[in-house]
Amino acid sequence: MKKLAASLILATLFTAAAHAEPKHPAWSRSSNVYEVNLRQYSQEGTLNALTADLPRLKKLGVDIIWLMPLHPIGEQNRKGALGSYYAVKDYTAVNPEFGSLDDVRKLVKQAHALGMHVILDWVGNHTACDHPWAAQHPDWYKKNEQGQIAAVSFKNGAGETEQWADVIGLDYGNKELWPAMTSAMAFWVRDVGVDGFRADAAHMVPTEFWEQARAQLDKIKPVFMLAEADEPALHAKAFDASYDWSLNGIMKKIGKGQAGAAELRAYVSNPPKAYARDSFRLQFTSNHDINSWEGTDQELYGPAWGAMQVLSYTLPGIPLVYNGQEARLDKKLAFFEKDAIDWKNYPLEGFIAGLNALKKQNPALWNGASGGTVQLLDVGNEQLFAFRRQQGANHVRVIVNPTGMALKYKLSGESGPAVIKPWRWRIIVPD
Fold first, then answer.
1. DSSP string of 374-398?
2. Mean pLDDT for the chain?
3. Strands 117-122 and 126-128
């Protein structure tokens, strides 16, 4: 891969800025996201251990570090020995198992010095059962039919009732809750220096809350907001990015041999929901939920994983790497216990670093309106998925073989047919 001339990059940046929504931080336009499960990231499981590893992440090409919740974890109805990150007992403190507030500040300062940014996982829908608010402000919580604060219960995607026994739901119908929650978020931006938030279960909290919170946070500094949701309306005023579960679902079907190029073309041509051109969609093959509850990359995708990771970087969206993927993470990390990653000398580090560099160096692959739209290509073989993206003078062509067979193809401008191996890909970047 050759770097584009500086003049071309500057010209493209100017063009993108002319039609980009102003709310996205400028540094997010060509960024990727790296999710850190701090408990399992190292044997120490501490903030300081992660800070010591930041130079490696910089070398990997990481732009945005997403920290899973750092807060003290509730003890009442705790799951497992260590509990869930998402059972927050205090929104403005740090779990002592991880370190201190000063340790977070040091991590953020070091990340900034290396040119990276840090976002914090934010659990706005519920708290731990023993959060002080439950006693101090019981009217801030949802009640059951008996008028009691009870565990969170909801209908899941299968229409079944699911219960989270270790957390209780907040009631945003009580507007007195809003400034308290917004103030807690502002604390991390103003006093600790984080650069934004990943909002857990964002669709379960009123969009209006997120919109006013974003407005308040942006007064401190421009922040980056990622929603664990896929509602287009969340992008209007509140969030920069949302989960692309649709594409991930197709990827997992490809891994099982239940889908292929036709489904990918349909996804591009007829997306399940309509998003504004400048909406960032989070693209991923794994994250903490997928790894712990669904399976490893090998279990979900088998030999297709590399090709799916390539698609997560080259189709429109902001790509995510879950910690350990660069080490070929081959186990489902325990969620409520200590279960450290075995890094195995980072066998896929070069692959991930190459994808990060590919995205950074080619504006056609940038996020939202800063990147190019997808133009499907006919390569003479419908079993292959091929497309082109262009932004300014920069264009990138991608061919992916989502099958277990070697397939012939013919690319415009090249003499004679060529062969692409099973589960492989080809990326063409002009000199």
1. EEE---S-TTSEEEEEEETTEEEEE
2. 93
3. unpaired
Residue 431 burial (10 A CB sphere; 0-12, 13-18, 19+): exposed
Q: Is 428 helix (H, G, I), strand (E, B) or coil?
A: strand
Q: How far is CA 240 from CA 46, 172, 273, in A?
A: 29, 22, 16
| pLDDT tens-digit map of 56-96 | 999 999 999 999 999 999 999 999 999 999 999 999 999 99
Full-model pTM:
0.93
- Residue 8's pLDDT is 36
User: What pLDDT, in 10s, does the model give residues 318-371?
Assistant: 999 999 999 999 999 999 999 999 999 999 999 999 999 999 999 999 999 999
Q: Which domains does the chain have, with CATH numbers?
A: 6-372 (3.20.20.80)
Any alpha helices (H) in 225-382, and if so which ranges?
245-255, 261-269, 288-289, 297-301, 305-314, 349-361
How far is the first Cα of the chain from the last one, in angstroms, to the nearest whole number?
8
Q: Residue 375, Cβ neighbours under 10 Å: how many?
A: 13
- Residue 6 has what pLDDT? 34
Give the side-chain half-sphere CA count within 13 A for 309. Answer: 27
Cα 280 to Cα 282: distance, rounded to the nearest angstrom:
7
One DSSP character per residue, 265-280 reads HHHHHS-SS---TT-E
Determine the number of helices (DSSP H) and then strands (DSSP E) in the chain. Answer: 14, 17
The distance from CA 164 to its chain's CA centroid, rounded to whole angstroms, is 23
> What distance lies between CA 395 and its chain's CA centroid?
25
Q: Convert 107-122 to b/e letters by CB count within 10 Å (16 or more is b).
A: bbebbeeeebbbbbbb
Residue 324 in contact with residue 286, Cβ under 8 Å?
Answer: no
Distance CA 105, CA 380 (A): 55
- Confidence (pLDDT) at 15: 36
- pLDDT over 70 at 379, yes or no: yes
The rounded distance, in Å, linking the Cα atoms of 381 and 385 is: 9
Q: How many other C-beta atoms lie within 10 A of the C-beta of residue 1?
A: 10
* Secondary-structure percent of the chain, ordered helix, strand, coil, rounded to 5: 35, 20, 45
